[in-house]
Fold each of these.
Amino acid sequence: MRKRWVYLTLGKNIVAMVVVTKEPYGETEPLCWSPIKKNISDDDYVAGETPTVEHAYRNITSSMQADPLEISSPKLALDLLSTAVRLQNMPLVKQCIEIIDKQLDPSILISVMSRLSECTSQRRDNYEPSAPPIIESENRGNIDWVVNQIENLRHNCLLEIDRYADAILKDLFFSTLPYMDVLRITTRDSLQVSSETIVYSAIMKWAHAECYRRTLQPHLTNLKAVLRDLVHAPRYGLMTKKEFTSRKIDGEKGPTRSGILEEKEWRRILFFIKEKSKKRPVEELPFYCSRPRGRGCEKPKLLSSESARRASDCTTKDLECSTSNRCETIFLNIVTCWATIFD
């Protein structure tokens, strides 16, 4: 009966060393073991006799690549996404993103944005799994594919937020989003809000929630500190005089009373609003505060059959819009020509 030493390892550390006798394979042979050549003599170790941990791990997980998990719930897909990214399981990441993209509706948009921010906020080192990747692929050690997939889903999510802007900004959970997501959403030219007061109310409620999370008193200094560029996210120049000078907007102090704008700023904005209402020429406001928002022309990334359908709808709408614009241009040209002839 032949004896040999077998080293059980965890990562690069040896956690146990046992003696194994030569028994029939399949009953006592360990599933995975990683021999260390410098500690084992050539007599005791024969190359290729026993598989390494990495080799065995690939064999175990190869079936997962051929038969991926079935996921139908977008909430479950969100829960699995972070784990899939951490384990560098590219097929599972793609499957989770496809499921989420198929069911992007107002009820999950905020959750999706929040989870995507959690994934991208991890450092590069955190993407390195403690064990070999759950699925072997040529992307091992490269997180670019993760970033691209997440950014594509975020792009589609923002397009849907544009459509349901009023509902999203009024949602209580909007205040739980991180700063960058709030800034991305509220500064979009394509955000389809019925009034800029909704944007103003949303950033003020978010600022109070952020102060609470940081255990800060919601004093003016702290509010301005957490708001940063969000101070100029609302398009103040698009408000009416009554809205801009309101004492309260949805329970929050109005723009001229909250103190987040300097007196010089809000007086300039008020002058702009008055002059615009009288249809007089006036210099545009800085920080795009007077730029109108409109329906965007960005197309969704093709992540699922649903995003392909949405992209097709966008193409149809763009074509209709383009045709309408051409008709209007032709009509105006004809009128101009007739006016010139008769003059």
Amino acid sequence: MKKYCCATFIFLISLVFIIYSVNFYFLSRLSHDNNKLKSKLYINENFEYNDVEDEKINHENVKLKPIYRNRNPKYPSLRDKLINNYKPCNRSLNYSQIWETVDSWSKETANEIYPAYSSRMCQVLSALREVKILSAQNYRKGTQLKLNITVEGGKTIVFKPAWYTRNQVIEGEVYAGKDRHNSEILAFYLGAVLNFRSTGLVVGRSINIRDVFQLADKELRETIISKGNGTKFCVYGKCFYCKPSESVCGNKTHYMEGAFLYEISGPLQKHKSPWQRTYKDGAKAVWEIESDNNNYCDNVKQKLSLVRLLDLIDASIFDFLIQNGDRHHYETRKNRMILLDNGKGFANFRTDFTDILAPLYQCCLIRKTTYTRLLVFTGGALTEILKELTKNDLLHPILNEKHYYALERRLLKIFSMIEFCRSKNENSIFQ
């Protein structure tokens, strides 16, 4: 009996030791993986500073509270809603019905192009990815090559071609290079995540440029070049900067990546941004010269309504995340700002042009709803949800990993600037 009790006791002790050891191992691995993730997201990488505001922003970054670095408990619920809203589905409506649906969405409010949640969203995105092209023309507005693509159901879609690969880095000024098609795609999903639903609907898609040649009108055909005895087709189009020496070409099978953009219904009004750049070497705009005081924003407040100013501040946060420093003009519909032309983002993952945030740090104002929404996507949640939402796009992956790390870094910088403003004006910054 004693031997039996002794053996049982030894067995139980051994079992407890084994369980403890296994748990310790997995907890250690979990801690290691978590620290590894945090090191990727938060440790300073070798990236470039470009603006006088970086010293302020980095000082605040060091002191950031855990609320800005840890996962928000509200995130899982919102994540599930977003994923469910954008998951693929079978299309049950015909194309005409789908385009009518989108147009009816954009008529409901001045600056919301689509609803936060709709059972028809997946059908709309599916239609954009698969709809048949009927004809093609030059899109003559703007400074860069775009095509007007007429599709089944009588809708005209704007096609922005791919000029760069995912890993290509564009050096230089914040507005350097041509538009990036993947920036347009990512901007659509980022707008949905941040509840800035004022971008047009965008999907990634490849078109066969040789087939488009057969469907093109005379003007567009004249700008499509056949090279290598018909082995390659290239297009340069008609626009302000379009020229034959700068054409974009299909691959070996004549396919060309690009962004399919659903045009926002108007009427739209165009305005010069108060934070417009000079686009001249060595020449600074007034807002850059007066960056160290609040006089510039005081002048802007006299010319714009508070709603318009807060729209511009929202736009600056959106643009800073994607690094679009080219919003020299902006469009409004019924006096509310919408976010068009988001193609100048994601040029260089190492570079943060902090002066894109000038409306935020010069005015030290932000919508409380914007701040609250940003807080939901802390601790790596922003990139996690963007990866999840874009994984069903035909051109997946939309970004490489380095650009996702840059997004997380920039989100922390936004929180740092908000804290800098709070240190000056406390909670009066929230509107």
Amino acid sequence: VSCGEQLQDFGRPEKIIIGVMLAIITAVTVMGNTLVVIAVCVVKKLRQPSNYLLVSLAVADLSVAIVVMPFVIVTDLTGGKWLFGDTFCNIFIGMDVMCCTASIMTLCVISVD
């Protein structure tokens, strides 16, 4: 099992631009999904069963943003080298599959609803 893959080795300016863009995407994902969870928890009119599915999707996407995206960013910026060890590589792959599957399955449930 390999978590890293050889990508292009970017120069310093490209790494800075890519790192900042990916960090912004991750931050916006965390903030947006957190706001969805807070809104449904705080506003009584939003506490409806259909909105609980949206909260579930927000939590699944939040888990991707917190557990998966930072490690992918670091790996991309190091030219595809996995820096976190073999044991954590296996844990990371499991978390990646689980979090992404939770998000996809929640989308399927929302579409059925």
Amino acid sequence: MATITAKSNFNVAEDATTLREAMKGFGTDEDIIIDILTTRTNNQRQAIANYFKNDLERDLIDDLKSELGGHFEDVIVALIMPPTEYLCRELNRAMDGAGTDEETLIEIICSRENGEICKIVDTYESVYERPLTEHMCSETGGELRRLLTLILTGTRDDSKIINAEEAKEKAQALYEAGEGRWGTHESTFSAILAHENFKQLRLIFDEYKNISGNTIEQALKHELDGDYLDALLTIVECIQSPPAYFAQRLYKAMHGLGTDDKTLIRIIVSRSEIDLEQIKEEFERQYNKTLTSYVEGETGGDYKKALLAIIK
């Protein structure tokens, strides 16, 4: 359910030459840049970047940065970067400098399964010469740090096997750690939600409702708060429906005063070859307004053109 799919009859030399011509001389043809880069997959865009480097002896991202600006530049550069490297850059930005953007850390780390996390961890250390877990631990604390550490160290089960009896046991453990006791035993929530595979967690959550009468979301909201609650809810929501989760994130990025452009760009670009079509459907179902119309109202100029070309 991607909005960007591979272009048939892809001609890397032709695309690279056309892009170079669009950036040469006086002025830049932004429409050509948008037309090419929003209608090729990331693999095809990597081929174009490699052609720039090897055949034109130029750096595509440097050329684009010299010609573009603002959020339009941000979208185009995000499209050119390899997906995992782009997410690593977003994680680094969330932790670099004064303050920490916990929402971005939670979105990227808690929404992905183990295979994706392993790629992110390896790429981060390769690019930034620092372990992601170490950097994250220096920027967060408490139960949030413990949960994110469990996820980043690859403790989640990769088997995709489900076990009904174990699901009942884990659901009971969750109940006894929260609703079934005075106070909350947070480490139990972290251990189960960071260790079990997504299919097993889905079964555990079903069993939890049978035991408690409440959904796991209701229980978490009753027992916890703050960034730790947001992180656990992200896991739950992404197990149930990643498109619904990302639709909510997009709505939050645009609703109210101002626009969270970094989140808007990150989700639209990073999900464009995964499930952006489904995210569009969820957005309209939840908010009775299309994602396209919302983006049109919150952005402008070539920035808007580029986002709308990706959303389609």
